[in-house]
Amino acid sequence: MAENRHQAAGLTDEQVLDMYYTMLLARKIDERMWLLNRAGKIPFVISCQGQEAAQVGAAFAFNRETDYACPYYRDMGVVLAFGMTAKDMMLSAFAKAEDPNSGGRQMPGHFGSRKHNILTGSSPVTTQVPHAVGLALAGRMDGKNPVVFTSFGEGSSNQGDFHEGANFAGVHKLPVIFFCENNKYAISVPITKQLACKSVADRAQGYGFPGVSIDGNDPIEVYKATKEAVDRGRRGEGPTLIEAVTYRLVPHSSDDDDRSYRSREEVEEAKKKDPILRFSVYLREVGLLTEEKEKELNEQAAREVDEATEYAENAPYPEPESALNHVYAE
Amino acid sequence: MAIISYIDAVTQALREEMQRDRRVFIMGEDVGVRGGVFRATNGLYEEFGEERVIDAPLAESAIAGVAIGAAAYGMRPVAEMQFADFIMPAVNQIVSEAAKMRYRSNNDWHCPLVIRAPYGGGVHGALYHSQSVEAMFNSTPGLKVVAPSTPYDVKGMLKAAIRDDDPVLFFEHKRCYRLIKGEVPESDYTVPLGKADIKREGEDITVISYGLTLHFALQAAEKLAEEGINAHVLDLRTLYPLDKESIVEAARKTGKVLIIHEDNKEGGVGGEVAAVIAEECLFDLDAPIKRLAGPDVPAMPYSPTLEKFFMLTPDKVMAAMRELAEF
Amino acid sequence: MATEVFMPQLGESVTEGTIAKWLVKPGDKVKKYEPLCEVTTDKVNAEVPSTLEGTVAELVAGEGDTLAVGDLICYIETEGGAAAAQAAAQPANTQETASEMPAAESPKTPVASARPSDAGGAAAKAAGKRYSPAVMRLAQENNIDLNQLEGTGKEGRITRKDVMSFIERSRTAAQPVPQAEPAIQAVSAQQRTATRQPTAAAEPERVPEPSVRPAVGTLEVSVYPGDTEIPVTSVRKTIANRMVQSKHDAPHAWTMVEVDMTNLVKLRNSLKDEFKAKEGFNLTFLPFFIKAVVESIKQFPIMNSVWAGDKIIMRKNINISIAVATDDALFVPVIKDADQKSIYGLARAVDELAAKTRQGKLSMDDMSGGTFTVNNTGSFGSVLSAPIINQPQAAIVSMESIVKRPVVIDDMIAIRDMANLCLSLDHRVLDGLVCGRFLQSVKQKLEAYGSHTSIY
After folding, report:
1. For a Cys staple, B55 with which of B32, C194, C235, C429, CB 3.0–4.6 Å?
2. pTM of the prediction?
3. Which of C16, C133, C157 has its CB closest to that of B327?
4. CA distance linking residue B258 with residue C173, whole number of Å
């Protein structure tokens, strides 16, 4: 019997199965979106495939009722963990009026939902980092002291906003988890051209708080590191920078062709280390996942995706004149 | 009623709002212990403490971005850019984020933020302490841009801006800080955003302005009245969105319009005001719509002769007003 | 000599300072840049340096006084006669406003006005005819002929204010001067002077203060001693504008025929007394004339048309406009559906309309809808007229005086009652042929009246 790593990390069996299902669901939604895009049904997909373990593992470390998240465009795993649904994702993909993120006003991947404490995001990268710091500052002033999650790619960690936000959080010791999903590519620019330092985690030192680099493809590892950081934050010890090293199994988006900048061999090699695959192996080893159970979960996820797709495809588009609404408070 | 300076009116507004609503807090460089390099936040650190008057690190994008996050949470931050010239690193946060937050989230989130910044010249500030930057933000739906001219207006509008549920860029002409004094009630009152104000009634020419040049126009109007020329002076107060109704009404009153601002002529808000008038008032115009503005050079230079060349003065304003009246 | 020392600008946005402490007293020698006093301001505490070398003469400001930047604080005596340069030079006001009045060159000063105009010629009226949209709109709305105004704007431009003042003055203009006015439409320039004199009974009042600028147009019209200026009433203005408009739009052509009215004269003479007794009003020649016209219109309906730009609209209803003159104005009420009336009916209609006109009781309905105009110019002695078409109609016909004349009938000379019928036509709509035929028809009908004619 394999070592029960999840219990050691403080996770119950139910929780890990929940994590597994969330990762699975994220993957299935993503796969369906690519299909729909290639079929000409939705104009744009921006993908999370390969990063599910990092996203879900981190998200589970928070109190998803009271903490806040400022994710970036790839974080479908994070927002599902924070309570959004497959239906929400599909409504966004089809840009329908009922889309909770933006009513169809933004591209997919621009998450936002007040009731799930997910701050609305935009396209200019890294702008969410100072926002996360602001949320934490406000939460402290308010006495509620939420811990705030913010994520970004390794490329985005070069933006001024990352450094300014991290510095501010460091000076004011705010409970912000700076979560870098290092998937080795910023569209086509590889990490060797992106970073002067060895690890993004090294940067934390400059801002006066700890930085750790972890295996982003192991959800339990990610959970453990993030939980530690969240607990630090709750104790008032300030921010943490976590670099989750992972890999992007698909191109940047449906508008990208990754054959022009990386080899098929590299991608195939990475697919062998697919985090969902790895996690299912672990779960089987600790007896939580049988062949039957796995089949059941897959079918459940597939059903959820099918229902979501059907619903979203048939949902109405926003009224044209509604484009004039909500510029200012009405 | 007390007569106080423009800057004291700013401080008064901030103090009253912070007393009234614990969600209001101030953030910026040197705003705390120093009380602001112009003393705009004088005394507030002592009264409200370092948690509510925050000396931020020297990082404009963070000042704006952190304030945006706090506003999204539900606070009412008043962030300061030390000089309007230094707002540039924060443009991304202001334009991409604050201005669009309500719209992009389909009204799920919004951003009740105020960003204050001193602007304008005449203080030997040279190229990077004298700029007028309002034109850059004057076509950003979701944002409100204001530039009050009088102590009464600045107190009322700052209070209104703080209570507004949308982001407001609040520009204060630094030369007005101590030069302009006026009656300001000690009571709680607001002046609505989005409304221009007739500062002087007249029948012969209409002058539309804001900021320091508004005062030049009023001064010139008094002198010209002795010559039998009566100017109708409209203070824009809010630069975006413009109070089109008041502009049209003021233009129709006399048919002769002179728009004055310190900002560069091409691309300045005067062009938008002129377009509104041209579109709505063709058959009421008795003269071409005129603009008197700063020259189209990158900024106001340092040497006194060069600064004087750039700046508008009561004499330059009066000459333009007289010329229009005589047309 | 004593030199003034002023409060300098001690910092960005500093506008005043308070003298905290004088560091010198009268009699002290100071070098340039040596501090004279300590000053406190909002932003900085500073010292005021001496701007020159000399001896302190007099301290003007006291300790504790607050002075504005540029105010005098003390005097310093310098050696020698040269005045030291000032630290803060007072800006010189070089504003010069040229407000001289050009001398009036015309022999008589024109009407009182707020600003003098460029007297002395049309040359200076470069901007005279460039009307702004506001000026054009106001002029149109108030039916103002801009040629009558003088501009007070740059280069003589007529400004919005000028038009507004003009409107104001017109509204408060003196009462219209009583003038005996002939039916204006029918009178040519010659005739006007000819007919006015005998009928101008009352001298026009000397208006003490003419409230209207002299008409300018393209000519300068000067006023000479002894001239009388008559203000133009709005009615006259309206008539004037309509006349101009009619002549401008419609190319007027003119033709006439002679009519032998002898039989009609006999007929009327035989009827008139009984008519007067029975109906209570006079039977004139006009209803007979209208009848003949109306019947001819039925034969030549094109006479009853209007020009509508891309089409000519031939009116079905025949509504005859008749000119009725009062003491001070001309009115043109309309007999609706004149073709449905008998001669008596027409006589009645004419009488009623004339009465209403004299009593000032004409309604809008009475005045509108006319399709053809008939003018009884003969009633004041005219034998030939060139009437101006009543827009938007296509033609106007006048019946001139009936005059006994020798004419040739069957190669013999006879004395007959003759009258001319004059037709002005809009040559866009009508031409000589149809008009000639029309007039012939009217002539025939008039000449056919006789003892057999029933007027009912």
Report:
1. B32
2. 0.67
3. C157
4. 35
